[in-house]
Specification:
2 domains; globular; single chain; ABC transporter involved in vitamin B12 uptake, BtuC; 14 helices; mainly alpha
Protein backbone atom coordinates (compact mmCIF):
# COMPACT_ATOMS: atom_id res chain seq x y z
CA UNK A 1 0.00 0.00 0.00
CA UNK A 2 2.71 2.50 0.97
CA UNK A 3 4.77 1.71 -2.13
CA UNK A 4 1.84 2.47 -4.41
CA UNK A 5 1.09 5.72 -2.57
CA UNK A 6 4.64 7.12 -2.81
CA UNK A 7 4.07 8.99 -6.11
CA UNK A 8 0.87 10.41 -4.66
CA UNK A 9 2.68 11.58 -1.54
CA UNK A 10 5.39 13.25 -3.65
CA UNK A 11 2.69 14.91 -5.75
CA UNK A 12 0.94 16.20 -2.63
CA UNK A 13 4.24 17.71 -1.48
CA UNK A 14 5.02 19.47 -4.77
CA UNK A 15 1.47 20.43 -5.82
CA UNK A 16 0.82 23.10 -3.16
CA UNK A 17 4.05 24.90 -4.02
CA UNK A 18 3.17 24.98 -7.72
CA UNK A 19 -0.43 25.98 -7.01
CA UNK A 20 0.65 28.73 -4.61
CA UNK A 21 3.08 30.14 -7.18
CA UNK A 22 0.37 30.06 -9.85
CA UNK A 23 -2.11 31.82 -7.57
CA UNK A 24 0.52 34.40 -6.66
CA UNK A 25 1.16 35.07 -10.34
CA UNK A 26 -2.56 35.53 -10.99
CA UNK A 27 -2.88 37.96 -8.08
CA UNK A 28 0.05 39.99 -9.33
CA UNK A 29 -1.38 40.07 -12.86
CA UNK A 30 -4.74 41.15 -11.45
CA UNK A 31 -3.17 44.31 -10.01
CA UNK A 32 -1.48 45.05 -13.32
CA UNK A 33 2.09 44.07 -12.45
CA UNK A 34 4.62 41.62 -13.86
CA UNK A 35 5.08 38.58 -11.54
CA UNK A 36 8.77 38.27 -12.35
CA UNK A 37 9.30 41.97 -11.72
CA UNK A 38 7.55 41.68 -8.35
CA UNK A 39 9.76 38.76 -7.29
CA UNK A 40 12.87 40.59 -8.45
CA UNK A 41 11.85 43.77 -6.61
CA UNK A 42 11.17 41.87 -3.37
CA UNK A 43 14.55 40.13 -3.61
CA UNK A 44 16.38 43.36 -4.37
CA UNK A 45 14.56 45.14 -1.55
CA UNK A 46 15.75 42.57 0.98
CA UNK A 47 19.33 42.23 -0.31
CA UNK A 48 20.10 45.52 -2.09
CA UNK A 49 22.94 46.40 0.33
CA UNK A 50 24.48 45.23 3.57
CA UNK A 51 22.21 47.45 5.66
CA UNK A 52 19.02 46.02 4.12
CA UNK A 53 20.46 42.51 4.36
CA UNK A 54 21.18 43.10 8.05
CA UNK A 55 17.59 44.24 8.66
CA UNK A 56 16.29 41.13 6.92
CA UNK A 57 18.53 38.88 9.04
CA UNK A 58 17.45 40.73 12.18
CA UNK A 59 13.84 39.83 11.38
CA UNK A 60 14.73 36.26 10.46
CA UNK A 61 16.51 35.39 13.71
CA UNK A 62 13.74 36.16 16.24
CA UNK A 63 11.18 34.55 13.93
CA UNK A 64 13.38 31.45 13.79
CA UNK A 65 13.77 31.36 17.58
CA UNK A 66 10.02 31.64 18.11
CA UNK A 67 9.30 28.97 15.50
CA UNK A 68 11.82 26.59 17.06
CA UNK A 69 10.14 27.05 20.43
CA UNK A 70 6.68 26.53 18.97
CA UNK A 71 7.87 23.28 17.39
CA UNK A 72 8.32 21.99 20.95
CA UNK A 73 4.83 22.92 22.14
CA UNK A 74 3.14 21.76 18.93
CA UNK A 75 4.94 18.42 19.26
CA UNK A 76 3.29 18.09 22.69
CA UNK A 77 -0.09 18.95 21.13
CA UNK A 78 -0.21 22.43 22.67
CA UNK A 79 -1.32 25.63 20.90
CA UNK A 80 0.98 28.14 22.56
CA UNK A 81 -0.80 31.27 21.34
CA UNK A 82 0.66 33.08 24.35
CA UNK A 83 4.07 33.20 22.65
CA UNK A 84 3.59 36.90 21.90
CA UNK A 85 3.28 37.67 25.61
CA UNK A 86 6.30 35.48 26.31
CA UNK A 87 8.34 37.58 23.89
CA UNK A 88 7.18 40.74 25.66
CA UNK A 89 8.05 39.42 29.12
CA UNK A 90 11.46 38.28 27.92
CA UNK A 91 12.06 41.79 26.65
CA UNK A 92 10.82 43.30 29.94
CA UNK A 93 13.06 41.15 32.12
CA UNK A 94 16.08 41.81 29.89
CA UNK A 95 15.36 45.54 29.89
CA UNK A 96 15.46 45.57 33.68
CA UNK A 97 18.91 44.00 33.52
CA UNK A 98 20.15 46.42 30.85
CA UNK A 99 18.95 49.51 32.76
CA UNK A 100 19.97 48.50 36.29
CA UNK A 101 22.95 46.12 36.20
CA UNK A 102 26.46 47.60 36.04
CA UNK A 103 28.57 44.86 34.46
CA UNK A 104 31.20 44.58 31.72
CA UNK A 105 29.73 44.00 28.27
CA UNK A 106 30.15 40.19 27.98
CA UNK A 107 28.65 39.59 31.41
CA UNK A 108 25.84 42.12 30.93
CA UNK A 109 24.84 40.60 27.57
CA UNK A 110 24.89 37.11 29.14
CA UNK A 111 22.76 38.39 32.02
CA UNK A 112 20.26 39.90 29.57
CA UNK A 113 19.95 36.58 27.73
CA UNK A 114 19.45 34.70 31.00
CA UNK A 115 16.86 37.23 32.19
CA UNK A 116 15.03 37.09 28.85
CA UNK A 117 14.85 33.31 29.08
CA UNK A 118 13.60 33.56 32.66
CA UNK A 119 10.90 36.10 31.81
CA UNK A 120 9.61 34.17 28.82
CA UNK A 121 9.75 30.83 30.66
CA UNK A 122 7.86 32.15 33.70
CA UNK A 123 5.12 33.67 31.54
CA UNK A 124 4.82 30.41 29.58
CA UNK A 125 4.76 28.43 32.83
CA UNK A 126 1.68 30.43 33.87
CA UNK A 127 -0.08 29.19 30.73
CA UNK A 128 1.07 25.68 31.62
CA UNK A 129 -0.24 25.92 35.18
CA UNK A 130 -3.60 27.21 33.94
CA UNK A 131 -3.71 24.30 31.49
CA UNK A 132 -2.51 21.42 33.66
CA UNK A 133 -3.84 22.47 37.09
CA UNK A 134 -6.98 24.49 36.41
CA UNK A 135 -8.12 23.07 33.07
CA UNK A 136 -7.98 26.39 31.22
CA UNK A 137 -7.26 25.78 27.54
CA UNK A 138 -3.88 27.11 26.49
CA UNK A 139 -5.41 29.29 23.76
CA UNK A 140 -7.59 31.20 26.24
CA UNK A 141 -4.86 31.39 28.86
CA UNK A 142 -2.32 32.52 26.27
CA UNK A 143 -4.56 35.25 24.85
CA UNK A 144 -5.30 36.60 28.34
CA UNK A 145 -1.63 36.66 29.30
CA UNK A 146 -0.74 38.34 26.00
CA UNK A 147 -3.05 41.21 26.96
CA UNK A 148 -1.65 41.40 30.50
CA UNK A 149 1.93 41.50 29.25
CA UNK A 150 1.13 44.46 26.99
CA UNK A 151 -0.58 46.31 29.84
CA UNK A 152 2.48 45.76 32.03
CA UNK A 153 4.74 46.91 29.18
CA UNK A 154 2.86 50.20 28.75
CA UNK A 155 2.84 50.77 32.52
CA UNK A 156 6.60 50.31 32.80
CA UNK A 157 7.37 52.53 29.80
CA UNK A 158 5.09 55.35 30.90
CA UNK A 159 5.88 55.00 34.62
CA UNK A 160 8.96 53.53 36.35
CA UNK A 161 11.06 53.32 33.19
CA UNK A 162 10.03 56.59 31.58
CA UNK A 163 12.75 58.68 29.95
CA UNK A 164 14.34 61.55 31.93
CA UNK A 165 12.37 64.14 29.97
CA UNK A 166 9.09 62.82 31.39
CA UNK A 167 6.33 60.29 30.94
CA UNK A 168 5.90 58.85 27.47
CA UNK A 169 4.63 55.69 25.84
CA UNK A 170 7.24 55.87 23.09
CA UNK A 171 9.86 53.83 24.92
CA UNK A 172 12.39 53.57 27.69
CA UNK A 173 15.68 55.46 27.71
CA UNK A 174 18.25 53.97 25.30
CA UNK A 175 20.27 51.04 26.62
CA UNK A 176 23.87 51.71 27.63
CA UNK A 177 26.51 50.65 25.11
CA UNK A 178 27.64 47.79 27.36
CA UNK A 179 24.17 46.22 27.06
CA UNK A 180 24.37 45.90 23.27
CA UNK A 181 26.37 43.06 21.64
CA UNK A 182 28.97 44.05 19.07
CA UNK A 183 27.86 44.19 15.44
CA UNK A 184 29.67 42.36 12.66
CA UNK A 185 30.13 45.75 10.95
CA UNK A 186 28.73 49.29 11.03
CA UNK A 187 26.49 48.63 8.03
CA UNK A 188 25.74 44.93 8.64
CA UNK A 189 24.31 45.29 12.15
CA UNK A 190 24.01 41.62 13.04
CA UNK A 191 25.41 40.06 16.20
CA UNK A 192 27.56 36.94 15.98
CA UNK A 193 26.40 36.02 19.49
CA UNK A 194 22.80 36.00 18.26
CA UNK A 195 23.68 33.82 15.27
CA UNK A 196 25.33 31.30 17.58
CA UNK A 197 22.34 31.30 19.94
CA UNK A 198 19.90 30.64 17.08
CA UNK A 199 22.08 27.84 15.68
CA UNK A 200 22.50 26.24 19.10
CA UNK A 201 18.74 26.40 19.77
CA UNK A 202 17.92 24.74 16.44
CA UNK A 203 20.46 21.93 16.90
CA UNK A 204 19.43 21.33 20.52
CA UNK A 205 15.72 21.09 19.71
CA UNK A 206 16.25 18.81 16.69
CA UNK A 207 18.45 16.43 18.69
CA UNK A 208 16.19 16.53 21.75
CA UNK A 209 13.04 15.70 19.78
CA UNK A 210 14.70 12.94 17.80
CA UNK A 211 16.97 11.20 20.26
CA UNK A 212 15.90 11.72 23.88
CA UNK A 213 13.32 10.29 26.24
CA UNK A 214 11.95 13.79 26.71
CA UNK A 215 11.31 14.08 22.98
CA UNK A 216 9.48 10.75 22.95
CA UNK A 217 7.34 11.86 25.88
CA UNK A 218 6.41 15.06 24.07
CA UNK A 219 5.45 13.12 20.93
CA UNK A 220 3.41 10.59 22.91
CA UNK A 221 1.62 13.39 24.74
CA UNK A 222 0.91 15.19 21.50
CA UNK A 223 -0.44 12.10 19.73
CA UNK A 224 -2.81 11.03 22.49
CA UNK A 225 -2.34 12.42 25.98
CA UNK A 226 -4.79 10.02 27.62
CA UNK A 227 -3.20 6.92 26.12
CA UNK A 228 0.27 8.23 26.94
CA UNK A 229 -0.75 8.76 30.57
CA UNK A 230 -2.11 5.21 30.80
CA UNK A 231 1.23 3.95 29.48
CA UNK A 232 3.12 5.78 32.22
CA UNK A 233 4.16 8.96 30.39
CA UNK A 234 4.16 11.99 32.75
CA UNK A 235 1.99 14.07 30.44
CA UNK A 236 1.57 16.97 32.87
CA UNK A 237 5.33 17.31 33.31
CA UNK A 238 5.87 16.99 29.55
CA UNK A 239 3.38 19.77 28.85
CA UNK A 240 4.93 22.08 31.45
CA UNK A 241 8.44 21.47 30.13
CA UNK A 242 7.30 22.19 26.56
CA UNK A 243 5.82 25.52 27.64
CA UNK A 244 8.94 26.48 29.58
CA UNK A 245 11.32 25.67 26.72
CA UNK A 246 9.18 27.55 24.20
CA UNK A 247 8.83 30.51 26.55
CA UNK A 248 12.59 30.69 27.12
CA UNK A 249 13.28 30.81 23.37
CA UNK A 250 10.49 33.35 22.85
CA UNK A 251 12.03 35.48 25.61
CA UNK A 252 15.34 35.56 23.77
CA UNK A 253 13.46 36.55 20.61
CA UNK A 254 11.89 39.44 22.53
CA UNK A 255 15.31 40.58 23.70
CA UNK A 256 16.59 40.38 20.13
CA UNK A 257 13.77 42.62 18.96
CA UNK A 258 14.66 45.20 21.62
CA UNK A 259 18.36 45.21 20.74
CA UNK A 260 18.29 45.11 16.94
CA UNK A 261 14.94 46.37 15.65
CA UNK A 262 15.17 50.06 16.48
CA UNK A 263 17.84 52.67 15.77
CA UNK A 264 18.61 52.88 19.49
CA UNK A 265 18.09 49.81 21.66
CA UNK A 266 15.16 50.44 23.98
CA UNK A 267 11.95 48.76 25.11
CA UNK A 268 8.98 50.04 23.12
CA UNK A 269 5.28 49.19 22.65
CA UNK A 270 4.59 46.46 20.14
CA UNK A 271 8.05 44.98 20.63
CA UNK A 272 6.89 41.52 19.52
CA UNK A 273 5.84 42.87 16.14
CA UNK A 274 3.42 40.00 15.49
CA UNK A 275 6.35 37.60 15.14
CA UNK A 276 4.80 35.15 17.60
CA UNK A 277 1.66 34.72 15.51
CA UNK A 278 3.75 34.51 12.35
CA UNK A 279 5.76 31.73 14.02
CA UNK A 280 2.53 29.77 14.49
CA UNK A 281 1.92 29.98 10.74
CA UNK A 282 5.48 28.84 10.05
CA UNK A 283 5.10 25.75 12.25
CA UNK A 284 1.76 24.85 10.67
CA UNK A 285 3.28 25.35 7.24
CA UNK A 286 6.15 22.92 7.83
CA UNK A 287 3.96 20.38 9.65
CA UNK A 288 6.12 20.52 12.81
CA UNK A 289 9.37 19.48 11.09
CA UNK A 290 12.14 21.47 12.84
CA UNK A 291 14.82 21.08 10.15
CA UNK A 292 12.69 23.18 7.80
CA UNK A 293 12.36 26.09 10.21
CA UNK A 294 15.35 28.24 9.14
CA UNK A 295 14.54 27.87 5.43
CA UNK A 296 10.86 28.77 5.69
CA UNK A 297 11.49 31.65 8.10
CA UNK A 298 14.14 32.97 5.70
CA UNK A 299 11.56 33.05 2.91
CA UNK A 300 9.15 34.97 5.16
CA UNK A 301 11.92 37.39 6.14
CA UNK A 302 12.87 38.04 2.51
CA UNK A 303 9.27 38.59 1.41
CA UNK A 304 8.40 40.90 4.31
CA UNK A 305 11.74 42.69 4.23
CA UNK A 306 11.68 43.32 0.49
CA UNK A 307 8.00 44.17 0.08
CA UNK A 308 8.54 47.80 1.09
CA UNK A 309 10.14 48.48 -2.30
CA UNK A 310 7.09 47.29 -4.24
CA UNK A 311 5.30 50.62 -4.01
CA UNK A 312 8.46 52.62 -4.71
CA UNK A 313 9.66 50.59 -7.69
CA UNK A 314 6.43 49.30 -9.23
CA UNK A 315 3.64 51.37 -7.71
CA UNK A 316 2.20 48.20 -6.11
CA UNK A 317 1.03 48.37 -2.51
CA UNK A 318 3.37 46.51 -0.15
CA UNK A 319 0.38 44.69 1.40
CA UNK A 320 0.45 42.47 -1.70
CA UNK A 321 3.29 40.55 -0.04
CA UNK A 322 1.01 39.73 2.90
CA UNK A 323 -1.69 38.49 0.53
CA UNK A 324 0.80 36.24 -1.26
CA UNK A 325 2.12 34.98 2.06
CA UNK A 326 -1.36 34.18 3.36
CA UNK A 327 -2.32 32.41 0.14
CA UNK A 328 0.77 30.21 0.32
CA UNK A 329 0.07 29.26 3.94
CA UNK A 330 -3.60 28.48 3.26
CA UNK A 331 -2.86 26.27 0.26
CA UNK A 332 -0.10 24.33 2.00
CA UNK A 333 -2.28 23.79 5.07
CA UNK A 334 -5.09 22.47 2.90
CA UNK A 335 -2.75 20.00 1.25
CA UNK A 336 -1.27 19.01 4.63
CA UNK A 337 -4.79 18.16 5.79
CA UNK A 338 -5.39 16.13 2.63
CA UNK A 339 -2.10 14.32 3.13
CA UNK A 340 -3.06 13.50 6.72
CA UNK A 341 -6.45 12.10 5.69
CA UNK A 342 -4.86 9.89 3.05
CA UNK A 343 -2.28 8.62 5.55
CA UNK A 344 -5.04 7.78 8.04
CA UNK A 345 -6.94 5.88 5.34
CA UNK A 346 -3.83 3.87 4.46
CA UNK A 347 -3.26 2.96 8.10
CA UNK A 348 -6.89 1.86 8.47
CA UNK A 349 -6.65 -0.21 5.30
CA UNK A 350 -3.48 -1.91 6.51
CA UNK A 351 -5.03 -2.75 9.90
CA UNK A 352 -8.10 -4.17 8.18
CA UNK A 353 -5.91 -6.26 5.84
CA UNK A 354 -3.96 -7.74 8.76
CA UNK A 355 -7.16 -8.65 10.57
Amino acid sequence: MKTHSLPLQIGLFIAPVILALALAALLVLAVGADPLAVLQTIWEGATRDSRALGQMVNFWMPLTLVSIGLIVTFTAGLWNIGVEGQMVMGAVFATWGALTLDLPQPFLVAAEIALAMLGGALWAALVGVLKTRLGVHEIFGGVALNALSNVLLIYLISGPWQPPEGGSVRGTPPFPDAAIPSFLSDTFKVSLVAVLVVAAALVAVVLALRGTRWGLELKATGKNARSALLLGVPTRRAAMSAFVVCGALAGIAGLYRVLFTFVSASLRPGVSGGIGFLGVLVVLLIAVRPVWVPFVTLIFAVVLGGSARLQIALGVDSSLAGVLQGSLVLIVLLFNGLRGRLAAREETAEVTAHE
